[in-house]
Amino acid sequence: MQKEIQDIREQIAMAMEQTMSVHGLPQSVCRIYGLLYVADAPMSFDEIQTAVGMSRASVHNALKALVDTGSAQKYWDKDRHRNYYTAEKDFFHNFPVFVVGTLRAERQAYLRMAEKVKPVLETMACEDPSPDHQNAMKLLSDMRNALQFYDWLNRFTDFIETGEIFKHLEKTSQEQT
């Protein structure tokens, strides 16, 4: 039975690694999160390093990333004189952290580009005899639509980040067993 439980823990850890990797995190971060997620007890730095077989620097950087995003907690055990780490298992906490960051980065990338090219397109669109007039008009129209979307995305991101989403979409459902 012990072997079967260990196999199941490994499968869960691998699934947690995969879910974290979807958010573009480095493999070392994902692997350590998976380990902490299935751990029976908080783990020390040395225990984590031994379990994952990574360099001290890699483990340090991964743990820092996990703690900084709230995906892991770090606490000092004064009796043992060392830090211990646990995984954040509340997905309703983790989800907004990763999704909001990704959505804001997407929006910012588009807005930076639009800030640069929109004035050029507007100038081209005003020049009637210009051969690029029609193309500029079409690109401006597309850009206006995209900017509307990114305005909506910003409001949606705020909706997630503030937790307002959970007032409209409950954390539990009738389908749960």
Automatic annotation (TrEMBL):
<comment type="similarity">
    <text>Belongs to the GbsR family.</text>
</comment>
<protein>
    <recommendedName>
        <fullName>HTH-type transcriptional regulator</fullName>
    </recommendedName>
</protein>
<feature type="domain" description="HTH iclR-type">
    <location>
        <begin position="39"/>
        <end position="71"/>
    </location>
</feature>
<dbReference type="InterPro" id="IPR005471">
    <property type="entry name" value="Tscrpt_reg_IclR_N"/>
</dbReference>
<keyword id="KW-0804">Transcription</keyword>
<dbReference type="InterPro" id="IPR011991">
    <property type="entry name" value="ArsR-like_HTH"/>
</dbReference>
<keyword id="KW-0805">Transcription regulation</keyword>
<dbReference type="InterPro" id="IPR036390">
    <property type="entry name" value="WH_DNA-bd_sf"/>
</dbReference>
<dbReference type="Pfam" id="PF09339">
    <property type="entry name" value="HTH_IclR"/>
</dbReference>
<dbReference type="InterPro" id="IPR036388">
    <property type="entry name" value="WH-like_DNA-bd_sf"/>
</dbReference>
<dbReference type="InterPro" id="IPR026282">
    <property type="entry name" value="MJ1563"/>
</dbReference>
<dbReference type="InterPro" id="IPR052362">
    <property type="entry name" value="HTH-GbsR_regulator"/>
</dbReference>
<keyword id="KW-0238">DNA-binding</keyword>
